[in-house]
Design goal:
nine-stranded mixed sheet, seven-stranded antiparallel sheet, 16 helices
């Protein structure tokens, strides 16, 4: 990217003075805040922060007194001003009925989506016209600090369903006019706020607020000499990263399938094992005919992944005679009988499903019943639908790329890692997640499982761990014990010596409310690494935020005549400083956007916890980007780093498997600890 012209979906808030007068009263206990609102809230606006209650009069001469009058600095009390703006926003947009007051959420009045669909698509059912769908908008005040030598400033911006139409309106100043034409925000009697210019990230000679990370390079050997910018190109050329060390050179893969699909399954397995040939005819200038191989999956599982005579054991289910029985029962009985008759378990299993069976509820779903039985036997499972098996060669070649990568990873293989310069003794990146098992709205009934995934700095997956299920109140103690156990195991396994420098980077998506995960992790790190020089960083990483990045210079990628995708989408790897401890990271550029109608991708919001001792946010943000390229579920990068993405996959499967009778996750922490069984 030669020029970075990045804008945010927000506008600066200009304040009329550097200070303002407010009323202050000491209030160490925040629980007493509510009583003040009940007694004085009709005349006073209140905001509690760090043991003090701040008050701003809503009326000119309040009859009820509060606190002591003080001069307050705007720079030091931005959170108070933000809270006040959030309170005022619904009142200056009275024509919009708020769906929620904080943050101020409302529906568009002029733009109606169904009407636009009806005008563009013919022969729709009449009932469609009876529906109305309006875009939802959110106005919210935030702080930003694009350059470290600046004080934090205010912004206010619309978070919208960021389709191309909305973003075009935003960039052509319609959103600014909509906001700026409203009444001035009266923060306090002596302080007003007005909407200023759109926020732009501009690099200067002195400071770079937005940078473009280097392209991620995939590695296919421990020496980092075999590299490629594309994962399948590298695997096809060099083989997988663990080709030399993979212990299951002649794996047995057991295949369960309905007997009504045996012919299709056998043909599919031949393609999986031996590869696919797709030849196109080419005629040169002299009229000579040449047939060129164009298949993207020519080698087959054995050749590409360095295996020797992989064995596929076929186990047909008697479906033709049992169509009247629940499919889950038929699958269970066949799998139970097969496993009971074997002394040595296979290395992996494939379960073929009829298309209509995949849509059955979890408690009746044959795949989930099959997966639960096989996982409890320590066997990772790969699902394959009949529709996939019956794909044309042109489609199947790409499907087999993804399927074989996932299957190899489930058997403890490492398809690829990323380029990584290790200048210290050891670096680990650890994902911390949770899974709610009960789904109850009542806290005392909720059950949680802690999910931990551990990677080397280059993305090599070391292990996954599930804590015991626990209540909300028990979770901090369970998290502490689980983290201590994992860190001690890694310390012993990796041979940490006294005075070694070790870097531990933790990624979390949405820690449980009121649970200080970062503090718990920091205490565990200090306890286990008391003999080492430990560099510690705790990052929260999420797409759940109101910010959108826009690249005005991005014209998108041509899809067809007159149609382009990814307009205004920043390139993958664009990193923007939003605050001293906060970055926005674009993980999807215009090339990864599927259609011209696809909304602009939401960047990742990366926040570094102040308790961290390692604080290079540029390095940490680039590491997050690399970890989006480490998903072995697909050849395409994920939207989230695998530390977050894998935890979500595990949580989703655990929640579904809870609905299967007899399920127990115990084996996941024993035989399948290093397996990517969840892909």
């Amino acid at each position: 990217m030669s020029k970075l012209d990045i804008q945010l979906n927000g506008f600066k808030v200009a304040l009329s003075a550097p200070t303002f007068k407010g009323y202050v009263q000491n209030l160490p206990n925040s629980q007493e805040f509510k009583s003040f609102i009940e007694l004085l809230g009709d005349e006073w606006f209140f905001h509690w922060r760090k043991g003090k209650l701040y008050g701003i009069p809503k009326v000119t001469n309040p009859q009820k007194s509060f606190g002591q009058l003080e001069d307050l600095s705007c720079k030091e009390h931005l959170q108070l001003i933000i809270s006040r703006i959030s309170y005022l926003l619904p009142d200056i947009f009275l024509e919009y009925n708020p769906l929620k007051r904080k943050p101020f959420t409302f529906l568009a009045q002029k733009k109606e989506l169904i009407r636009e669909v009806i005008s563009a698509v013919k022969n729709l059912p009449d009932i469609i016209s009876s529906f109305k769908v309006f875009p939802k908008y959110i106005l919210e005040a935030k702080t930003f600090e694009i350059q470290n030598d600046e004080h934090s400033k205010l912004l206010i911006g619309p978070a919208v369903d960021a389709t191309l139409t909305e973003m075009h309106s935003f960039l052509t100043n319609k959103a600014h006019k909509f906001l700026a034409n409203k009444a001035t925000l009266n923060i306090a009697p002596d302080l007003q706020a007005t909407i200023g210019a759109r926020i732009e990230a501009i690099n200067t000679k002195e400071y770079q607020s937005v940078i473009a990370a280097s392209s991620v390079e995939y590695c296919f050997d421990a020496a980092r000499t075999k590299k490629s910018l594309y994962p399948w190109v590298g695997i096809d050329q060099y083989g997988p990263f663990s080709r030399q060390t993979f212990s299951k050179k002649t794996p047995e893969i057991i295949v369960f399938f309905p007997d009504t699909a045996q012919g299709a399954v056998e043909n599919f397995l031949v393609s999986l094992r031996d590869g696919i040939s797709i030849k196109n005819k080419k005629i040169d200038e002299d009229g000579n005919v040449e047939w060129q191989e164009t298949s993207r999956y020519t080698g087959g599982l054995a050749k590409i992944f360095g295996l020797f005579n992989p064995k596929f054991t076929l186990e047909p289910l008697s479906w033709l005679k049992n169509t009247h029985n629940p499919p889950a029962i038929v699958y269970r009985e066949t799998i139970e009988g097969t496993l009971a008759s074997r002394e040595i378990m296979p290395d992996a299993a494939m379960v073929v499903l009829l298309d209509n069976h995949t849509r059955l509820p979890d408690s009746e779903n044959p795949y989930l019943h099959s997966k639960s039985l096989l996982l409890m036997a320590g066997i990772p499972v790969q699902e394959v639908r009949l529709a996939t098996i019956n794909q044309s060669k042109n489609e199947l070649q790409y499907t087999l790329q993804n399927l074989t990568v996932a299957l190899y990873a489930k058997m403890n293989g490492v398809p690829w890692t990323v380029d990584h310069d290790l200048t210290i003794h050891d670096e680990l990146v650890i994902g911390v997640g949770t899974c709610e098992l009960s789904g109850s709205r009542f806290t005392e009934r909720q059950r949680f499982v802690g999910i931990t995934t551990v990677f080397r700095g280059d993305g090599n997956y070391l292990l996954g761990n599930l804590s015991k299920d626990c209540t909300y109140d028990e979770y901090p103690s369970v998290l502490r014990n689980s983290t201590l156990s994992i860190l001690q195991e890694i310390k012993n396994r990796n041979g940490w010596q006294p005075n070694d420098t070790v870097r531990l980077v933790f990624h979390a998506a949405r820690p449980l409310k009121d649970v200080d995960v970062a503090n718990i992790i920091a205490e565990c790190v200090a306890q286990v690494g008391n003999e080492q020089n430990v560099e510690f960083a705790f990052l929260t990483i999420s797409h759940d935020h109101p910010f959108t990045m826009l690249d005005k210079s991005q014209q998108g990628v041509k899809v067809k005549e007159g149609e382009r995708k990814g307009i205004y989408a920043p390139e993958r790897g664009t990193i923007l400083q939003l605050g001293r401890y906060t970055r926005l990271l674009s993980t999807k550029g215009s090339k990864l956007i599927k259609r011209s109608s696809t909304p602009l991708p939401t960047p990742l919001l990366i926040n570094l916890h102040p308790q961290s001792t390692y604080r290079d946010l540029t390095y940490l943000s680039e590491q997050v980007l690399k970890f989006t390229s480490l998903s072995w579920k697909s050849l395409l990068p994920a939207s989230d780093p695998v530390t977050i993405y894998y935890s979500e996959l595990i949580a989703g499967l655990l929640a579904r498997l809870q609905n299967v009778r007899g399920w127990s996750p115990a084996m996941l922490n024993i035989k399948l600890r290093a397996s990517k069984w969840f892909l």
